[in-house]
Amino acid sequence: MRRFFILLAAFVLAALAAAAIYNIPAVNDRLSWRVELLASRVRKIIAPQPETLPTPSYPIAAPPTFAIETPANPPITQPPNSL
Predict the structure, then answer these.
(1) How many secondary structure helices (H) and strands (E) does the chain include?
(2) Which pLDDT band, with edges at 50, 70 and 90, does 82 fall under?
(3) Whether this model's pTM surpasses 0.85
(4) How far apart are CA 81 and CA 83, in angstroms?
């Protein structure tokens, strides 16, 4: 039982050391894409994407058309003649 706790403590310390080293910017720059790739693979194993996308069983309405109303040309007024 004592050996189990020693191994568990060693694993926890190794994980903490790995997390601390990963936070160094130079290491993070070189490993970030690999960590993202691993996370993506794990995500696909846990929750795989469906083979086909579901299609709606109801008819799809036509997209709405938008009409832009422009105001009528305002009457052109001239300034009063001051002769």
Answers:
(1) 2, 0
(2) low
(3) no
(4) 6
The whole-angstrom separation of Cα 66 and Cα 8 is 65
pLDDT, tens digit, for every residue of 16-74? 999 999 999 999 999 999 999 999 999 999 998 888 777 777 777 777 788 777 777 76
Cα separation of 73 and 75, whole Å? 6
* Distance in angstroms (rounded) separating the CA atoms of residues 65 and 17: 60
Helix, strand or coil, per DSSP, at residue 22: helix
Q: Which two tokens stand for residue 47?
A: 């929750």
* Residues 20/13, Cβ–Cβ less than 8 Å: no
